[in-house]
Each structure stands twice: as structure tokens, then as C-alpha cells.
Amino acid sequence: MLARDALVALLLLTGFQTLYAVENLPVRVVKERKPCSGGCGRRGHCNYEEGRCECPWGYIGPSCEVDRMAVCRQTPDDPGSCGFIMPKNCECYRECFRLYCRYGTDTNKCANQMWGADAFDASCWLYGSEDRGPATDRPQDSSLYPKNPEQETVWFGRIPEMIGGTNYSGEELKLEDPGRRYKSPWDRPWLVWHRADNIAKPLSMCNNTCANGRGFCIQRPGSLEPECSCHFGFKGPDCSEEDPTTCWFSPTCSGRGQCRSGFCHCHDGSWGWGCHRSVAYHPATPGAVPDVRSKARLKIYIYELPWEIAFPFEVQEEIHSRDNIYTGYEQFMRYFLMDDSVRTENPYEANLFYVPALAYFYAENVRNSQWQIKAVIDHIRQQWPFYNRSGGRDHFVFMPGDRASCHSDRWLQDEIIKVVHFGMQKKNLTWLGIENKDYGCIQTKRDLVVPSRSVNTGPLLPNTTTSYYQWLVANRGYDGNRTLLFFFAGGIADGEYSGGVRLAIKLLLQNLTSPPPDVKFFEGSIGDRYHDLLQTCKFCIAPYGHGWGIRLVHAVHFGCIPVIIQDNVYQPFEDFLPYEEFSVRMRLADVPHMVELLRTYTEDQLAKLRLGLVKYYRAFIWEREFDGLAYEWTLAGLQRRAYHLDGEYFH
Ligand SMILES: *[C@@H]1O[C@H](CO)[C@@H](O)[C@H](O)[C@H]1NC(C)=O
Ligand SMILES: *[C@@H]1O[C@H](CO)[C@@H](O)[C@H](O)[C@H]1NC(C)=O
Ligand SMILES: *[C@@H]1O[C@H](CO)[C@@H](O)[C@H](O)[C@H]1NC(C)=O
Ligand SMILES: *[C@@H]1O[C@H](CO)[C@@H](O)[C@H](O)[C@H]1NC(C)=O
Ligand SMILES: *[C@@H]1O[C@H](CO)[C@@H](O)[C@H](O)[C@H]1NC(C)=O
Ligand SMILES: *[C@@H]1O[C@H](CO)[C@@H](O)[C@H](O)[C@H]1NC(C)=O
Ligand SMILES: *[C@@H]1O[C@H](CO)[C@@H](O)[C@H](O)[C@H]1NC(C)=O
């Protein structure tokens, strides 16, 4: 002991400040910065761990000098995107295809699922003319609409890669319906919910050329003149204002940089999505993988990923917001980047590794995010030794989609820890696209189920939750306002939806000759009434839906005792959260008797369950401004996974 301490002291005295020791473990890791090329700071910033210049979306090269996505921009000021609101130069879509579809021409395997089947129908153009074809004298180097689009463009219905080709000669590439020229590729009648039937116009027709291309110029149906639709990161009528909140995970860039178009441009010395990094660690012996992990403290290392691998891009141009119920993992990321006690910059001391694949940005709610996750894993396996060391078992990834990990191939199911909202355990599921038959969507000792977020607007904001629970404590759990027995309101759909629970309740109540007046059941949305029922019912029914359900979270936010009817579905934190203290669990088979069963609870028992909610409701709230502790509970769950790993409970 003494000898090593003396050595450290000596080295420090002699100026070797780069030496680093983890608590009482031997010195095998050093602080050491790998420099980047000189011009890196102009457009990007140096990641001193990798010696890689971190660039904004679209730029690559040692100093971000190569504009890989130039053809997706209208002007050099256009941040560019692969979105579909406005038809772009077909060469842009080809570049996007190369970016996202690494695993061959099967568009189901594109990392960005927008590039799957939907992109197949995207209309795009080249400079040229319908008579003479693509221009040979004008480079296809931008998506700037020409002054006279009618005479200067030739239109296509798809790009060559999508038919396995390499050029535009194939007749099947032509845009068949001339009515779709200049119109959004989303303008398809069958895309009812995000139909965008606007028409693209040259930038010069919009005010201030939309601040030189920070938006695009479109004519919306029914409006008299074209208007700017701003790119992600910009706002105002001509898109001249910058919007810093678009750096999702750190709107302030930790005070060490500036947010531009979703990219934190960090001051020299800081790097990462939120400029949260500033120290780089390397093995004292090059090539070694020193193991300086401590059992005493949970330490998590987050990989920094280049934009080509993962970036919170606009899922669909113009539609900048995501459905809030899917953003629990964004909240986790925000808190994690600020959490200097658990987050470590030294991967050699990490117990767990955070793989920020941003699955939702690539696959949204119902698509299969495994191709994006695979792309990220392939990348980190090449760049770092840690994934191979454990076979991915000490790595975790968030999969917030409806059916989350259920769609994953077996290798992904078995390797990485998946943090999901849906803990389906049933084996041999017959759902479409679910290959794994040997176990359900997750393995409970390895994967972690966490609550989803609620919403951040309107009456379902959990901003009154704490005051209600304080009142409840003062009333020893009794709430005389809760006079109704239970309610449910929402979609019903067929048997597979919610495992048949919603339909069973509907049939049960239809069957009764006189439905009980204290039971409320509504098919579909009921607006603000939903909020009122959460406050006046004793019980709130929490089935799942297509995948995970939000109703458990809603019930807990409002002090309504959840009745969880989800056969085979493991609930958030279920292995260490005592659900029996605050909820009622029923089987689908119990539904025919549920009214009688729920009536057997006495007022005292209900009060006791509500006091159970008082103890645990904060596990179901993400936002700290509403007293949420879901981040801390998630960390506790991850720590337990690390413990299970050491228990050899999963392989
Ligand atoms: C264009 O692609 C087709 C097949 O898709 C091929 O037969 C043809 O030779 C190509 N033309 C040129 C000029 O490369
Ligand atoms: C364009 O600018 C003019 C003058 O400022 C303004 O009156 C008009 O409303 C603007 N048009 C749009 C679509 O913003
Ligand atoms: C990890 O394993 C993969 C597949 O065997 C390999 O391609 C990769 O180079 C390995 N990574 C490292 C850092 O050795
Ligand atoms: C899975 O279900 C199919 C029928 O849907 C059945 O034939 C098969 O034996 C089942 N496999 C297992 C492992 O239960
Ligand atoms: C909670 O949020 C709602 C919706 O934004 C708002 O109307 C209400 O005043 C808020 N309540 C409190 C106590 O802040
Ligand atoms: C109970 O209902 C009364 C009357 O509507 C209301 O004033 C009171 O705030 C309610 N109590 C709680 C805890 O919601
Ligand atoms: C509804 O009534 C029918 C006919 O009596 C019966 O077969 C069915 O099981 C009942 N359904 C429920 C959900 O009670």
C-alpha cells in the first residue's frame, strides 16, 4: 500500500498529473488527450477521448470540412435533413438511403424506419427536364428548387437503390402520377394522420428566403401565398430566430457551448451531446483493457456517438415534437448527463455502459428499432473493447416503442440489457414479426421495465400529484370524493389489443341488464372528463394496449388505485417495487367477476392502498419539477441488473 501511495505522490510531485487511480485499485489508467486536427473547432469540437472531431449533422472529416449531405440542403445555411415534408433532389434521398440502410436493400432493415417501406413511395426530382431527362451540365449538388421548376426538373417516384439499381434509367423509377410533383411525399391519401398536402416552392418566393434556407418554402392548401416552414432549430415567420431548446438532452449545452440545430457546439475542451465531457482516459499500457471497476459505487459510462450513428434528427421535418408519452428516456438522458456521481468519463471503471441509440427517433412507436440498435452496437464494438468483453451483458439501451424489444432478433434479446415500458412474458407469441418463441419480450432478471412519461400539457400534467398525496396523508388515505367504483375510457379494438381485456370489460358491462351506476366505461376519448374520473373513482383500470399502456401511470398520478389487468406482463420496477401495497392485480379470467371483486374492498383497505401509493407514486413520475424519482428508480433497477449479472442470473 505504502509503496504505491508513495509512487503516486512522487509522480504527482514530478508533474505526472495525468496519472489516475481509482480509489484503492492499482494505477492502470491515465488521463490523456488525443488531439484533433487544427480546424476542428470551426464547425465542430474535439472529442479528446477518441481524437475525433464531433460534427453537426451532415458534416464529416477531420475538421468537419466535408459536407456529406450537401445535396439535402437548399443553401449552405440549411441544416439539412432526410425528412419528407418537401420533395428533395433524388440524390439527397440516395445519400439518406446509404446513411440509414446499411444492411442491404431490404428496406425493412433500414435503421431509420422512415427509409423503409414509406420511402419507397417518396417522390423526388433531379435538375433536368421531363423531355431531356436528368441534366448532365448541372451538378445534382443541392435541393434548392430551381427558379422555374416546371422547366428545370425531372421527377421520379423512387430512387435506384430501391429496385436494386444504380442509375435512373429504369422506367419503374418514373413518377407515375404527375399530380404528385412538387407535392409533399407525405401527400398520400392513405396516410391520414400525417398527411401533408402542401406544395413546394422555390425559396425565392418566400420572405427573406426563409433566412437563406433555414426552412423551406411551401404553399399550404387554402393559403394565398407561400410561407416558410422552419427546420428543426429555427423559428419565426422567416426562420431567422434560433431555438436553443432543440438540443434535446441539454438545452444549455451544460453552459459549455451553443446549441445550433440540435447540435451542441462545445467550447474547446468539452465534447459530447451535452458538452458534458472534459476528461479522457486511456490504459497506461496501450492496448490493455484495465479492469478498475469498483463494487462500492455504481458507475455508468455513456458512449459518444457521431451523427451518422445516432442523432436526434427531425423524425419528420416540420413535426418537431414527439409524442411525450415516449420521452421518458429523454428525461433519463437529461438527468444522467448532469449526474456527476453516477456518470463516469472513465470507461475502465464503469460497471455499466449506456448505449444511447435514440431508438424512438429512428423507429417511432410501432416499428422495429433493432436495426438502429444494431448499427450502434456495430459501431461501439469496433471503437471500444467493452461490448466484446461482456458480450454486451453490462450494456443497456432504451427501447420505448409500444412492443419494444418483442420484435428483436434473438441475439439482441440475449445480449444487451433492454430498458423498456413493456414487460410481456408470454412465450410463443403469435404477433406479427415476433420471432423469439422461447421466452417473452424480456427476461426479468436482465431487462428492466420502467414507467412511461405522462404528458406535459393539459389536465394530465402531474403538477398537482404531490399536493393531492399530502392531503391524502392528512386524511389517513380516505377520500370521500371517490364515490365511483371504477372507470375505463379508451380504444377497445380486437382480441390481440390489450390481450382482450378491454373487449372483455365492454362485453361484461353490455351483458348486465342494468349496468351499475358507479361504473363508467367509454369507448374512445372523453376529453377532460377523463381527468375528472381519475379523481372520483376508487379504482382505475389499467390494461395494456397494442403494447405497453399509459393507464397505470395516469392512475398513480391521480391517486386512483390501479387495477392492473395485464396477463403475463411484468410491470415497471416490479422486481423491487411492492405492487401489492398500492394496486390490485387481476387476470383476464377475473373480468366477469370484477365488479363484485372490487366491491369486496372495504374503505379501510382502500385507504391503506392509497397510503401505499403515497409511498411509491414518485417512482412513476419522471419530471423532477413534479417531485419525480423515476430517474433514481431506474438507476436502482440498473444497479440491480449489475448485481444480477454478478449473480450469473443471465448469460
Ligand atoms: C443503368 O442501370 C441499368 C440496370 O439498372 C443497366 O443495365 C445500365 O447499363 C445502366 N446504365 C448506365 C449508363 O450505367
Ligand atoms: C412576408 O412579409 C410581409 C412583410 O413583412 C408580411 O406582410 C407577410 O405577412 C409575410 N408573409 C408571410 C407568409 O409570412
Ligand atoms: C469485437 O468483436 C467483433 C466481432 O467479432 C469484431 O469485429 C470487433 O473488431 C471486436 N472489437 C474489438 C474492439 O476488438
Ligand atoms: C408455439 O405455438 C405453436 C402454435 O401456435 C405450436 O405449434 C408450438 O408447439 C408452440 N411452441 C412452443 C415452444 O410452445
Ligand atoms: C397544472 O398545469 C395545468 C395545465 O398546464 C394548469 O392549468 C394548472 O394551473 C397547473 N396547476 C398548478 C398547481 O400549477
Ligand atoms: C373534493 O370535492 C370537493 C367538492 O368538489 C372539492 O372542493 C375538494 O377540493 C375535493 N377534494 C379533493 C382532495 O380533491
Ligand atoms: C355475456 O353473456 C353471454 C350470454 O349469456 C355469455 O355467453 C357470455 O359469457 C357473457 N360474457 C361476459 C363477458 O360475461
Automatic annotation (TrEMBL):
<feature type="disulfide bond">
    <location>
        <begin position="55"/>
        <end position="64"/>
    </location>
</feature>
<feature type="domain" description="EGF-like">
    <location>
        <begin position="202"/>
        <end position="240"/>
    </location>
</feature>
<dbReference type="InterPro" id="IPR040911">
    <property type="entry name" value="Exostosin_GT47"/>
</dbReference>
<feature type="disulfide bond">
    <location>
        <begin position="230"/>
        <end position="239"/>
    </location>
</feature>
<protein>
    <recommendedName>
        <fullName>EGF-like domain-containing protein</fullName>
    </recommendedName>
</protein>
<dbReference type="Pfam" id="PF03016">
    <property type="entry name" value="Exostosin_GT47"/>
</dbReference>
<comment type="similarity">
    <text>Belongs to the glycosyltransferase 47 family.</text>
</comment>
<dbReference type="InterPro" id="IPR004263">
    <property type="entry name" value="Exostosin"/>
</dbReference>
<keyword id="KW-0333">Golgi apparatus</keyword>
<dbReference type="GO" id="GO:0016757">
    <property type="term" value="F:glycosyltransferase activity"/>
</dbReference>
<feature type="disulfide bond">
    <location>
        <begin position="36"/>
        <end position="46"/>
    </location>
</feature>
<keyword id="KW-1015">Disulfide bond</keyword>
<feature type="signal peptide">
    <location>
        <begin position="1"/>
        <end position="21"/>
    </location>
</feature>
<dbReference type="InterPro" id="IPR000742">
    <property type="entry name" value="EGF"/>
</dbReference>
<feature type="domain" description="EGF-like">
    <location>
        <begin position="32"/>
        <end position="65"/>
    </location>
</feature>
<keyword id="KW-0732">Signal</keyword>
<keyword id="KW-0245">EGF-like domain</keyword>
<dbReference type="GO" id="GO:0000139">
    <property type="term" value="C:Golgi membrane"/>
</dbReference>
